Amino acid sequence: MLRKLTAGVLITVPVLFSAGYSLLSARFDYPLILKHSSDEILRRFDAHHAALLQGWYTLFLAAGLFIPLSTLVADRYAPRALANLARSFGLAAGIVQAAGLARWVFLVPSLAARYVATTDPGEKVALRTVFEAFHHYAGNGLGEHLGYLFTGLWSLLIALGLWEKSRPLAIVGALSALAIFAGLLEPLGLGGVGAINALGYVAWSLWLIALGIKTARSGQKENNS
Questions:
Q1: C-beta separation of 50 from 112 below 8 A
Q2: By CB neighbour count within 10 A (0-12 exposed, 13-18 middle, 19+ buried), where does 195 fall?
Q3: Which value, in Å, is the radius of gyration of the alpha carbons in the chain?
């Protein structure tokens, strides 16, 4: 049952992530919208509130599910001597990403609605200030910067544990982790690192699905033997 649970969550998390990301990309021009002004972000969020809330909640759920996933996978694949460290990195990755995404579910809807409704210039400035503060701290700081760091470290440890069991999966996991690390360089203004990070997450999602399939098939082999 634990093996089946691990395989199921390994496949579910990237599927949820892809579904939420695709919805936000189609309806909110995400992530390019984040480069626009706070005024435009808040107005566009309010205009498509219901659909966007579904997308953000899906991503929030995927981040939350990564917390048990990271522990289940660490127990099964991380090097025994580093299993506790892998669990810690995975737990931290899930928490900071969920914390960063939570603002879109619990804070931004009310901020956007109030921003569109008010005609007071001073209140609009205050609402933009609150949004930007959470955007930079919870979004850029927690969800992205620390999320990239802990997700990459967890992935490297799992890849290390996979080296003797499945070298191709180990290589893909390590390369996707390195690509995710590229996102840490975005504050330095280096060109191309955002695209590398995005490609890293695509590879990482496919890696999780492949690892889920491997986990499911390993049970079939055990039953056949």
A1: no
A2: exposed
A3: 19
CA separation for the pair 117, 127 (Å, rounded): 12
Regions of the chain with pLDDT less than 70: 219-225
Percent of the chain with pLDDT over 70: 97
Would you mind telling me the total number of residues written for the chain in this entry? 225
**Does this model's pTM top 0.85?**
yes
What pLDDT, on the 0 to 100 scale, is given for residue 225? 44
